[in-house]
Design a protein that fits this description.
This protein has 55 residues and is mainly alpha-helical. Helices cover 64% and strands 0% of the residues. The protein contains two helices and no strands. Helix 1 packs antiparallel against helix 2. The longest helix is centred in the C-terminal third of the chain and has 18 residues.
Length: 55
């Protein structure tokens, strides 16, 4: 993850984004998701990754 913080300090916002990403990835791993649910989760993952500078 890249930080916009020039001091290199790990922020609460960065932690929050990482936890959101992990939760979405865990949801995606569920076996009982419909195709539409998977598409939505992948979209949300892409949005979080973009905010984190991972895109």
């Amino acid at each position: 993850m890249t930080s916009d913080n020039p001091t290199g300090t790990y922020t609460c916002q960065e932690y929050r984004e990482e936890m959101i990403l992990l939760a979405l990835q865990k949801k995606l791993a569920a076996l009982n998701l419909s195709t539409e649910q998977k598409k939505q989760i992948l979209k949300e993952i892409a949005e979080v990754e973009a905010r984190m500078g991972m895109d």
